[in-house]
Every structure is written in C-alpha cells, then in structure tokens.
Write a structure and sequence with these properties.
single chain; Four Helix Bundle (Hemerythrin (Met), subunit A); six-stranded antiparallel β-sheet; 21 helices; 20 strands; disordered C terminus
C-alpha cells in the first residue's frame, strides 16, 4: 500500500532528524546536514501522502475506508477537497502537513538565529509523534480491513457514504484548515521554551519566539471566529457560541496563547515574569494536545456535537501518552532549572504596567481554568455542564478584565501612584458613565450587565485614545489597541445579543399573517431546491417595510435525521433570526378556497383562465419532505410547468402513500402564493408515454367546485438579537490587531538583524585589523562552529 509506505518513510525521516539534531546539539557530532535533510525528507513525504489521499478522493477510490467514509460521487469539487480533513485520519494527516510546512520555515528561522539544533530537536520529535499516530490511525487502510464484517476482500463499493450534511458548506473549506494551522503553530513556542531551558537562555528566547506566538494565536483565533460564524449562520444552533466542550477545547489554548503574548511583552520590557513565560509556553501546547484528545478520543461523544467517534484503544492510549510526555518534558525541564529561574525573578511596584498586565493575565488565566474544568467534567461524570455555568463563572472575570484593559494602559512601566491613575482615568470614566446612562434609559436594567457594560465602555474609550496617539506615530504600533477595542466591543455585543435577546416559538399557517416579536410574519410557501432540500419562505413586515427569509429543512440520508438551516437578516442594531422547527398539516379551520379540476396528459398543455398548465414528468425525489411532514411513506410528485403571461415557473404537488393509510396530498403553490395545485390522482403509462395526472387548482378567480384546501403551518423559532453586529466587528478587530502586531514584530526582527549585521561586520573588521589575517580566520571559524 503506497500511502502507508510513504507514512512510514515520513515517520522514519522525522525520527532520524530529531536524533541527528540531538546528537549535534549535545555531542557536537557533524550530523546537522543529516538532520536538515531528514526533516526536509519528512516534509516532502508528508506532502506526498497528502497529495496521494487527495488523488484517491478525487478519483473516488472507495476501496480505501477513509475515502468511502467521507466522500461520494455527488459531492462538488470544493467539498470533495474538504473531505481530506473531515475525518480523524485525514485531519491528523493535514495537521502533520501544516506542521511540516511550519517546520521548514522554523528550521530556516532558527538557523539564522543560531538556535537551530535545540529547537529543531524538540520540534522534529513532536512532529514524529504526530506521524506515529498516523501509522496507527492511517487514512490508507483498505475498506475490507477496516470493516471486515461489512465488506469482503476485494469488494469495492460503487459509492461512498458522503460528507455529513452539517459539513457540506463553504465554511468547511476555511474553518478546519485555519484551526489546524493554529494547533500546529502552538508546537513552536513549546519548542522554543524547552530549548531555552536546555540552553539556559532564559531571556534571549523571548524575542525569537514572540512572532511565532502571535502567529499561533492569530491562526487559532481566526479559526475559532470562522467556526462561530458558521454555527450562527448555517448550522442552526441558535447562536455563535454554545459552550460546547469541543468549542471550549480550542478556546482554552487560545486564551493561554493570548496571555503569553502579554507576559512576553513584560519580560521583554522589564525582565519580569521569566518563569511565567516558560510555564505558559509549555502549557499552550499541552492544552492544544489535550484539546485533540478531547475531540478525537470519543470521550465527548455524548456531550458534544463536534466530537469524533471512538478511534480505538491504541489511538486512545497514544493520545494519552502524547499528553503525558509533553507534560513530563515541560515540567521536568522547569523543575531542573527552577532555582536558576528564581534568581532571575524581579519585583515591580504595584502601580506599574507590569503589575497590571500580570493581574490581567491572571484574570484571563482564571477564565481558562474555569472553562478547562467545565470542559473536562464529562470525563469525570459522563455529563456536560450547562452553558449557564460558564455564563455565571465568567461574568465577574469579564468585568474585571474590562477594567484592567483600560487601567493597564494608564499606568507607567516604572510605576506611579493611585492619584496619577485616577487623573488619567477621569475622562474615560466620565464618558463611560454618560454612555451607560443612555443604555439604561434605553432598557439596560440588569445590574451585573450594567457593570459589565461600564467596564467594557471604559476599556473601549481608553483604547480609542491610545489608538489615536499610536496611529500618529506608526500604524504598526496600533495592534494591541485595536485588539483591545475588539474585546471591549465583544463584551457589549454579548450583553445585547445574549442577555437582551428575545425568542418566541410560533406556528405560521400558510398565507395567514401572525404577530411575532412585534413583527408580522407570513409563511408564503415552500419550494424544493435542486439538491433535494426544502426552502420555506417567510415574509417579515413592520412599519411599511418588508423582507423575506428562507430557512431550510431536509431529511438526511447520511444519518436518517431531519436537518435544519436557519436564515437571518442583519441590521445595525439587531438581527432577525429564524430557525425552522417542523411543518404541520391539519384540517382547515377557516374558509377554504374553491377549486378547478384538470386532467393533464404528459407534455400536452391545457389552458384554464389565464394559466397554461403542462404536466412534464413524475418526481420521486421528495422522500425528505415526507420525513419533514412526520411520516415514512412514499412520496410521488408531478412536475407542472405554469405559464402566466410572460412568467414561467415549475411547481411540484405530491401525494404520499403509506401502507394502511389513505393517501395524503401536499399543495404546491406559485411563487407569489396565490395559486395552489393539488395532485389527486395519476395514471402511469410508460410504454405509450400516455401518463396522466388529475390536479385541482385553487386560487383562480371565478373557480367552481367544493373547497378542498388543507391548512399547512410552519413551526419556527424566531429571535431578535440586539447588537449582534458588534460580535462580528469585534472578532474582526481582534484578528486585525493580532495581524498588525505580527507585522510589527517581524519588522522589529528584520531591523534588529540588519543592525546586527552592521555591528558584526564592524567588529570583524576591527578583529582583522588588530590580530592579523590568520588570527581573524581562526576566530571566524570558531564563531561559525559555535553557532
């Protein structure tokens, strides 16, 4: 099996690279070239394995269990590509690919910084362990080996199971890959930290690692943001964040990574928090691996909608070993150097920026610990904690953080006094009080929400002033201020959309307006889409303006369950959000319309009033609608072409047949909802192509005959989410802030390198002039060997 052989080569190359780097670092053996070449070979073979899996998916080679389990012939190209990371095995391979590419960049980076040997020893070892997991959980296993009771040897299915309908969305193209880049990047600060403990370079590693920490936080944060938007706009979970254990497991390492960025800034500026930074750098990666364990061990299978199935005992054990080895390595190195690190500790005045940043970091850390506890609870109790637990515990933390986001910027690095802080805070406090009063007058009544709003407003205005001042100097200095403004707006958006959102469940009878949340909702009908789903149209009206929302329901053959996709519209101050629940039919309670009866022969148009109706064909692709209607019979539809003036459209009335019950019909309506078509009977004559259908038409002026229309009601859950737009603006600002900060750090490193080259050239010239050519060459050789 080519794929498995390639993975074995990759694992062997990664292991050789780690060993060769270690020997080069500890015994000064000339194995650096071997280490580099082996790492490059590992990266190339991982790329080859990824390309091979993609090729198998695109060629529909269903003899491979992974290809059969996650792809199908009906998937479009962009979704076929996403199946590479849709399952456990493929996502491990994609993670390894991201790690390999990052590793090549890291190798070049550390080589220039003369810290390659130690850093790459750790990183290559981490990468090798990931490849070991791939050997155990390979995406190249044959289907008859993976499912011996279901498939005989050599038996190749005609089609695959396909992709979970929840994942068949454009966001599947972006969200998982970005998230995996973030997870892979978290191994870099871990490698830097262990290398620093190894080399005893407790200060120098900070400058080298900062850009990588920011990059990891940027990628992981972007992935989380994309996932939140996906959940809100497509998946119908009613919000962008539900405190799901797997959602939380990616948030925790991101929070720790954000703390690390700030504590690194402190050490770089004052020399403090040396031990803290090493602990955080190790913790960030350990928590990323722990997140992987929670997601992929199957342990959250009953607690999370995101969780993968049980991967098997061996994979489970390897995930646990991975966590323990990472933890033991980090804690062991820290314990060995703890006394030396304690000697470097410094104490700054309380009224200093270092102290306030340290307190802010502790507050964020408290949030991470609370979320970690709640996320891990299913391991202990086999039950997940309710979202209310996270809301209650994080509320005081968010309030404290809001104030600290402002106060930490109003004190100086060298220290100050309470009087100075009060003076610097006065303007922002006054403006915040004024805006808070306006919010209270407009309905902000909850005391704790008011306190959180006040803290968030204070942070917002302090950082706005700081942004203005920094932007006048250099836009590269504004990253932190922009990210802090985003966080303040996020808290305000959470208050509006979460605490003051409104929700109401309503049944909307067809074409009957109903008052819901102060709006007039009218269900105007449904239409089958080309992919077999049903789109329901709801007209929303208020104060003379109107709009249409179109939520979707469909029966999934993948897991034999009813799927629902919401629809919403955004305004500056609120979102109107509709989730479909079910479709109900019952006998009419009001006056029904009269009908006209037509006997239609296939392909022969008939004219009635101002309509021309043509029966085109039968349609058997409506079993999903039968499930939506609560049954399990056979649905047969008749596709009718309706011409009215210059307009032409297709409608598909259908009849549902179920053993032991009378046939049930479902009326199909024109797009404007005024005319309905009901299928009463049919006669199939395939040989002579003389099939006919009997159809009644309701809604025509001057129609005759008894009423036949049945009522139909769409049950929905409607929500008004105030200031939801602040959440998305906030998320974008945080990402932009991190991006600018990354650009700033890279610019700083480039300037420092250029300055270092000039200084080095001057020093070498002085040595040559002083010592003579022979001594100069010898000194240069010693410098190169040391590096």
């Amino acid at each position: 099996m080519i794929g498995s052989v390639v993975l074995w080569i990759a694992f062997a190359a990664g292991s050789v690279s780690s060993y060769a780097y270690f020997r080069s670092a500890t015994q000064r053996k000339p194995l650096t070239r071997l280490a580099r070449n082996s790492f490059a070979a590992m990266a190339v073979t991982v790329l080859a394995a990824s390309a091979l899996l993609l090729l198998y998916v695109l060629r529909h080679q269903f003899e491979f269990a992974y290809v059969w389990g996650y792809s199908s012939r009906s998937l479009p190209l962009h979704l076929l590509i996403t199946t590479i990371w849709a399952g456990q095995e493929g996502s491990f391979l994609f993670w390894a690919l991201c790690g390999s590419i990052i590793g090549l960049m890291l190798m070049s980076y550390t080589r220039r910084k003369h810290i390659e040997l130690e850093v790459m020893t750790i990183y290559a070892l981490v990468q090798s362990f990931l490849l070991l997991l791939l050997l155990v959980k390979s995406p190249f296993q044959y289907i008859w080996n993976a499912h011996p009771g279901q498939f005989a040897v050599g038996d190749i299915p005609a089609d695959g199971r396909g992709l979970n309908p929840l994942l068949q969305n454009i966001w599947m193209v972006a969200h998982p890959p970005v998230l995996f880049i973030g997870f892979a990047a978290m191994a870099v600060p871990f490698s830097f930290a262990l290398a620093a403990l190894w080399r005893k370079t407790y200060v120098e590693w900070i400058s080298n690692a900062v850009p990588w920490v920011i990059f990891g936080a940027l990628a992981l944060g972007t992935g989380i943001m994309l996932g939140g938007y996906w959940a809100y706009g497509v998946l119908g979970w009613g919000g962008w964040w539900g405190w799901d254990p797997v959602e939380n497991s990616s948030l925790i390492p991101w929070l720790v990574g954000v703390i690390l960025i700030h504590t690194m800034l402190v050490q770089k500026r004052t020399g403090g928090l040396t031990r803290t930074n090493l602990v955080l750098a190790i913790s960030t990666y350990v928590l990323a691996v722990y997140s992987t364990f929670l997601t992929r061990s199957g342990i959250l299978g009953e607690s999370s909608v995101h969780s993968f199935v049980d991967p098997g005992a061996l994979t489970y054990i390897l995930l646990v070993v991975w966590i323990l080895l990472s933890l033991v390595a980090g804690v062991g190195m820290l314990a060995k150097r703890w006394k030396e690190l304690a000697a470097l500790s410094q104490h700054s005045p309380f009224w200093s920026r270092e102290s306030f940043l340290a307190i802010s970091s502790a507050v964020i850390g408290a949030s991470a610990l609370v979320i970690l506890f709640g996320t891990s609870w299913p391991i202990l109790s086999h039950a997940s904690l309710e979202p209310a637990f996270y809301d209650r515990t994080n509320l005081p933390i968010a309030i404290a953080l809001g104030f600290l986001l402002g106060l930490s910027l109003l004190v100086q690095w060298k220290g100050g006094s309470p009087k100075d802080l009060a003076k610097n805070s006065a303007a922002s406090l006054v403006i915040s009080v004024f805006v808070l009063v306006l919010l209270v007058l407009h309905g902000l009544r909850d005391v704790w929400m008011a306190v959180l709003a006040f803290a968030s407003l204070f942070a917002f205005f302090v950082n706005i002033v700081r942004l203005y001042r920094l932007a006048k100097e250099n836009y590269l200095y504004t990253g932190g201020a922009i990210a802090h403004i985003g966080l303040a707006l996020l808290f305000l958006g959470i208050i509006g959309s979460g605490r003051y959102g409104q929700k109401e469940t309503a049944a909307l009878p067809l074409h009957e307006p109903k008052e819901v949340l102060g709006y007039k909702f009218t269900y105007t009908g449904s239409q089958a889409t080309q992919d077999g789903k049903w789109r329901f149209t709801i007209r929303v009206e208020k104060d003379g303006s109107q709009l249409a929302l179109e939520p979707v329901m469909f029966q999934s053959e993948y897991n034999n369950s009813l799927m629902r996709n919401p629809d919403y519209t955004s305004f500056l101050t609120k979102d109107i959000y509709i989730e479909p629940v079910s479709l109900e039919q019952s006998d009419p309670t009001g006056e029904a319309q009269a009908h006209d009866l037509l006997l239609l022969k296939k392909s022969e148009p008939q004219t009635i009033k101002d309509l021309q109706v043509t029966f085109l064909r039968f349609d058997m692709n409506h079993q999903g609608m039968e499930k939506i209607l609560g049954g399990n019979g056979v649905a047969i539809g008749a596709v009718l072409e309706i011409k009215r003036g210059k307009k032409t459209e297709l409608v598909t009335p259908m009849t549902v047949y179920k053993e032991g019950q009378a046939p049930r019909s479902r009326i199909a309506r024109t797009k404007d909802g005024t005319i309905g078509f009901e299928l009463l009977g049919m006669n199939v004559d395939a040989e002579k192509k003389g099939s006919t259908v009997e159809v009644t038409i309701t809604g025509l002026q001057g129609s005759n005959g008894p009423p036949r229309q049945k009522s139909e009601a769409l049950v929905i859950e409607a929500s008004i989410k105030p200031f939801m737009s602040l959440v998305w603006v906030a998320a974008v600002l945080v990402i932009v802030g991190l991006l600018i900060s990354l650009r700033s750090k890279l610019s700083e490193r480039r300037d420092a390198m250029e300055l270092g080259k000039k200084d080095s050239a001057g020093e070498l010239a002085r040595r040559k002039q002083k010592n003579g050519k022979g001594e100069y060459v010898q000194q240069l050789a010693e410098d190169v060997e040391h590096r």
